[in-house]
Amino acid sequence: MVFEFVYRSPHAPADVYTLHQEVMDIVFAGGDALNKEETRPLWRAIKSDSGSIVLVRTSVPPLGEVKYREHCAEFSVGAMRRFNCRLNLSRRLRQGHAGHDKPSGTREIALTVKEDIDEWLRLLLDHNGMALQNAAMVSRGRLKVTPHHYINTADLVFNVRITDAERARVAYNRGLGRKKAFGMGLLLSGDPS
Q1: Is the pLDDT at 128 greater than 60, yes or no?
Q2: Looking at the record's lineage, which domain of life comes first (predicted)?
């Protein structure tokens, strides 16, 4: 079961830190959220004349005063689905230190070449119970979070075949990829309902 709602914000879609705080305040009514992946809300903002329209999906009913709809995402093995998703175009590389055999940390690198992005998306979807059939990049950008922190983003539309219904349902409920707190990873269904 997931809970979805839409609200208007006076902040621009690029003001991701403020939008993240608004979403958390609405979902958890200003309280401290338990930092668990299964309860962390997903969101996506689109530009409006006076700021943003924000779609939020969460696995817990929001505590704030908003009207929401609840539904259960259904997936079946072999079914074809179309999604739109804003993703963080980066991967983590394990790195070691001189004189050590085991990796001691990770480093984030941006994906730059289309072939790298295609393979990365294919692996990401495979890990989440979906086989990529085809994909198109609608837009690409660089989002400034703080003066020294940027997120490389892309809006992608893709068709998939479901290979594992439970993993696909979890991906729909919890999102794909990294930087979900900043509006990445929300799977929007492009299928007619």
Answers
A1: yes
A2: Bacteria
Joined tokens for residue 180: 């979900």
Cα separation, 54 vs 30, whole angstroms: 18
Q: How confident is the model at residue 193 (pLDDT cuts 50, 70, 90)?
A: very low
**Does the pLDDT at position 178 exceed 80?**
yes
Question: How far is 53 from 140, CA to CA, in rounded Å?
Answer: 20
- Mean pLDDT score, 110-118: 76
**Of 132, 114, 110, nearest in space to 122 by CA:** 132
Helices (H) and strands (E) counted in the chain, each on its own, are: 3, 10
Q: Is the sign of the CA dihedral 97, 102, 104, 106 positive or negative?
A: positive
Predicted structure pTM score: 0.86
What does the DSSP 8-state code read for residue 30?
T
d(CA 155, CA 89): 10
Which helix H or strand E contains 5, and what residues bound it?
strand 2-9
Distance CA 167, CA 186 (A): 15
Amino acid at 171: A
Report helix, strand or coil for 111: coil
Name the helix (H) or strand (E) containing 34: none
The token pair at 77 is 């093995």
